[in-house]
Specification:
about 675 residues; alpha/beta; Rossmann fold; 6-stranded parallel β-sheet; 21 strands; about 20% strand; binds adenosine-5'-diphosphate; binds magnesium ion
C-alpha cells in the first residue's frame, strides 16, 4: 500500500495543522481522501458570451481584457473591495472582488482572461462579482467546481490537489485487475483520478467519472454481498417446522392475500433453517406487512423464541404494539412496548421481564437496541420501514441476539436495479397485491384557486363521518410562500375548517404530545389532522378517507405516494388532492403521473427515470455508507455493470483474499468504515 497517500494531508507542502483542520471539515483525512474529493461539476470556459449579451443576475462566462485597476479599498472592518475595469469590445464592465487581494493581484492590465461570475447591473453599468478566472492563454478550459469550506479557496485546493496527484504518481496503484478494466471498458485508476481533477476535455472528465462511479458502486455492492455471505453462519434459533399456527392465522380479522401467504411461508421456511434469515419484506403502503410480521412472531413465540419489532418512530411503535396485542391476546402470547419516553422505573421493570423471558414479543423504537436491554432468547429481529435506519442499526439489533433471524420491512417501493444494490445483503419477498376490496385512491391535482372547492369536498366527507389529513411542507412560516402547518392550521380553523375539530402534528412536538394527538385522531376525536410529513410512514387510521397535500411540488413522487397511502386503508372510497401553483412542465408531468398511477413500483420507476439514481444516493436516509461520486453521476448502466462485476469477483474469491483484490478490499473496508470481511 502506498504509505504517504494514506497518511494525513500534512504530508503535502503548505498543509499545516490549520489547513488540515479545514480539510477534516470536508471529511478529508488522508491525501487519498483529498484525491477522492471529486468536483461537483465543471466550469467550461469555452462557453463565453459578450458583455452585451450577458444575462443580468445570472452567472455568465466572459472573455475580458483588463483596462485599469484601482487600488484595493478597505470599506468596513475587515472588508476589502478590489475593482478593475475590463472590456471585450462590445462594452465595459467592472470586475469586483471582495477580500481577495491575492487573486486580484494576478490580474494584469492589458491582459485577457476568461471570467465566470454573477453579472449585475446598476446606474454605472454592468458588474461581474467575485469571478473565477483563467488566463486566456490557459490550455485548461475545463475548471472543476468543488465543495469548499470557510477559508479554503478553490485555488488553494487545486494547488494541494496537484501535489496529491504527483504523490500518487510516485506511488502508483490500481484496484481493478486488468481483465475487469478491459471487459467493462474502464480507464485506469491513476488516469481517472488525475482527469477528474484536471481534465483536458469534457470527454476525459466523463470517462474518469465513469470509472470512479463504477468503483464506488462496485465497492458498495461487494460490501453488501460480503455481509450477506458472512451472515450465512449458524443460528442458535433453528425453529421446528412442525409447530402449527393455523389457529392464529384463522383468528386474524381478515383473510390473507396470496402474497401475504407466500411471504409468510418464505419467512417460516427461513426460520426453520440453521442459517439465520436475512430477508427484506417489501410491500406497498397498506399491503399488510404487519400481519405477516405478526405471523412470524407467533411462529417464533410457539418455538419458545423472543421476537423484537423495531419501528422508526414512537407513533408507529405504539401502533404496532396495539395491532399485535389485539392479534395475540387470545393466544397468551405476551407483547410489551419499550420506547424512549418510558419513565426509568417502568423501563427497569420491563427490562427485567424481557430478560427473564416473560415477554415473547418486544415492540419499540431504537430503545430496544440500547445496551442496557438484555433478552432471554432473542431469535427474530424485525425492523419496520427500514429506509429510516442505517445498515449499522440493522446490524446493532441483530448483534443483540445469538445470530438471530432478521426481517426488514420496507414500504418504499424501489426499482429493482436499485433494490438489488441497496438490499444486496438481503433476500427479498414482495407483497405486490393489495388486500381485496380496496378501492383505488382517486387523485386530483389542482391549483390554489380551487382550494375552496376542494375543502367543500373535504367537508362533505367529514359530514359522512370520515376524517381527513392536510399535509404542509414546513412547521413555521418562512419568507417563502410555502404553507407551514402552524399558520395554516390557524387560518383553516377560522375559514375552511371552521367548526371542525382540527389538530396539529409535526416533528418538533414532544413524543408524548404526538402520541396523544395520534391517539385522538385514531379514536375519532379529531376530524382533520394538519401535519407535516411525520404521518408519512405507516400510520394506519382506516376511517380517514381524504388527504390534501399543499405545495405538492415540494414532494418527490415516491413521497407523495407514501403520503397518499395514509388513506384508502379501510372500506371507504378515498381521495387525494394535490394542490400546487407550480406550472412548470416538470411539475405538471409529476402531477399527471400521480393522478394516473397507483402502483408504487411503477411510480418509483418513474421517479428514477425523472431524477436519476443520483438523487437516491444523495439522500442520506437510505443508510448506506456515504457515496462520493455515485450520488452525482451514476446511470442504470453503471449500476448493472457494477453488480455483475461484483458477482464475478466474489464468485472467484468470496472474501477477497487474493493478492489481486487486495487494494480493492482495502477500499471496501474504507467505504464501510469497518472490516466487513472479518
Ligand atoms: P403496511 O404494509 O403498510 O404496513 P398494514 O399492515 O398497516 O400495511 O395494513 C394496512 C391495513 O390493511 C390494516 O388496517 C390491516 O388491518 C389491513 N389488512 C392487512 N391485511 C389484510 C387483508 N389480507 N385483508 C384485508 N385487510 C387487510
Ligand atoms: Mg406498516
Amino acid at each position: 500500500m502506498p504509505e504517504k497517500l494514506f497518511g494525513g494531508t500534512e504530508t503535502l507542502k503548505g498543509v499545516g495543522e490549520a489547513k488540515a483542520e479545514k480539510y477534516l471539515k470536508l471529511g478529508i483525512k488522508s491525501v487519498y481522501d483529498l484525491l477522492c474529493h471529486f468536483p461537483k461539476n465543471y466550469l467550461d470556459f469555452h462557453n463565453n458570451v459578450s458583455i452585451e449579451d450577458s444575462e443580468v443576475n445570472e452567472y455568465n462566462c466572459l472573455k475580458l481584457k483588463i483596462k485599469s485597476k484601482s487600488a484595493p479599498q478597505a470599506v468596513r472592518n475587515r472588508l476589502v473591495v478590489c475593482k478593475a475595469v475590463a472590456t471585450d469590445g462590445t462594452d465595459d464592465i467592472t470586475v469586483v472582488m471582495f477580500n481577495n487581494v491575492y487573486a486580484f493581484q494576478y490580474l494584469k492590465t492589458g491582459y485577457e482572461y476568461y471570467m465566470y461570475g454573477k453579472v449585475t447591473e446598476n446606474l454605472f453599468g454592468k458588474e461581474i462579482t467575485s469571478p473565477v478566472y483563467i488566463h486566456s492563454g490557459e490550455k485548461n478550459f475545463i475548471q472543476p467546481i468543488y465543495k469548499l469550506t470557510q477559508g479554503l479557496t478553490v485555488n488553494v485546493l487545486r494547488n494541494d490537489m496537484k501535489q496529491a496527484i504527483a504523490l500518487m504518481k510516485s506511488e502508483p496503484f490500481e484496484t481493478l485487475p486488468e481483465s475487469i478494466m478491459k471487459k467493462y471498458n474502464l480507464c485506469p485508476l491513476m488516469w481517472s483520478l488525475e482527469n477528474i481533477h484536471f481534465p483536458e476535455s469534457k470527454v476525459s472528465a466523463d470517462m474518469a467519472r465513469r470509472r470512479l462511479a463504477f468503483d464506488e458502486l462496485l465497492k458498495l455492492q461487494l460490501g453488501m454481498m460480503i455481509m450477506k455471505n458472512r451472515s450465512r453462519t449458524h443460528t442458535g434459533f433453528k425453529m421446528d417446522s412442525s409447530v402449527k399456527i393455523s389457529d392464529f392465522v384463522k383468528s386474524l380479522p381478515f383473510e390473507l392475500t396470496g402474497d401475504q401467504k407466500k411471504a409468510s411461508l418464505e419467512i417460516i421456511k427461513d426460520l426453520c433453517r440453521d442459517v439465520p434469515m436475512n430477508r427484506l419484506l417489501q410491500g406497498d403502503v397498506g399491503s399488510g406487512k404487519t400481519a405477516v410480521a405478526g405471523i412470524a412472531c407467533c411462529f417464533a413465540a410457539r418455538n419458545g423464541v423472543q421476537s423484537a419489532l423495531m419501528a422508526p418512530t414512537e407513533i408507529l411503535a405504539v401502533q404496532h404494539y396495539r395491532t399485535l396485542s389485539s392479534f395475540f391476546e387470545p393466544f397468551g402470547i405476551k407483547v410489551c412496548l419499550l420506547t424512549g419516553s418510558l419513565k426509568s422505573r417502568e423501563k427497569n421493570e420491563l427490562r427485567e421481564k424481557i430478560a427473564s423471558g416473560e415477554y415473547d414479543v418486544i415492540v419499540g423504537t431504537h430503545a430496544i437496541i440500547q445496551k442496557d436491554v438484555e433478552y432471554k432468547s432473542l431469535g427474530l429481529v424485525i425492523t419496520d420501514e427500514q429506509h429510516r435506519f442505517g445498515v449499522a442499526q440493522r446490524t446493532a439489533l441483530a448483534e443483540k441476539g445469538n445470530t438471530p433471524h432478521k426481517l426488514v420491512m420496507s414500504a418504499t417501493p424501489i426499482p429493482r436495479t436499485l433494490a438489488l444494490i441497496i438490499y444486496g445483503d438481503l433476500d427479498i419477498s414482495v407483497i405486490a397485491q393489495l388486500p381485496k376490496g380496496r378501492k383505488p385512491i382517486k387523485t386530483y391535482a389542482i391549483t390554489g384557486k380551487m382550494r375552496h372547492r376542494a375543502f367543500n369536498f373535504v367537508r362533505q366527507r367529514l359530514a359522512e363521518g370520515r376524517q381527513a389529513y392536510v399535509v404542509c411542507p414546513m412547521i413555521e412560516e418562512s419568507e417563502s410562500e410555502l404553507f407551514a402547518v402552524k399558520s395554516y392550521a390557524e387560518n383553516a380553523v377560522k375559514s375552511d375548517l371552521a367548526g371542525y375539530r382540527t389538530e396539529l402534528l409535526h416533528g418538533k412536538m414532544k413524543p408524548a404530545e404526538k402520541d396523544s394527538v395520534m391517539n385522538d385522531f385514531r379514536d375519532g376525536k379529531i376530524d382533520v389532522l394538519i401535519c407535516t410529513t411525520v404521518v408519512e410512514v405507516g400510520v394506519d387510521v382506516p376511517n380517514a378517507s381524504v388527504i390534501v397535500i399543499e405545495n405538492a411540488e415540494r414532494f418527490g413522487l415516491s413521497q407523495i405516494h407514501q403520503l397518499r397511502g395514509r388513506v384508502g386503508r379501510g372500506q371507504f372510497e378515498s381521495t387525494c388532492i394535490l394542490i400546487t401553483d407550480n406550472t412548470s412542465e416538470e411539475c405538471l408531468h409529476r402531477m399527471k403521473i400521480m393522478s394516473s398511477k397507483t402502483d408504487g413500483f411503477e411510480i418509483s420507476e418513474e421517479d428514477l427515470k425523472m431524477r436519476g439514481p443520483g438523487d437516491f444516493f444523495g439522500n442520506a436516509q437510505h443508510g448506506l455508507p456515504p457515496m462520493k461520486i455515485a450520488d452525482l453521476s451514476c446511470s442504470n448502466e453503471i449500476m448493472n455493470m457494477a453488480r455483475e462485476c461484483a458477482g464475478e469477483i466474489l464468485g472467484d474469491d468470496p472474501m477477497l483474499e487474493k493478492e489481486c483484490y487486495h487494494s480493492l478490499k482495502m477500499d471496501v473496508i474504507r467505504l464501510f468504515d469497518k472490516d466487513i470481511t472479518g
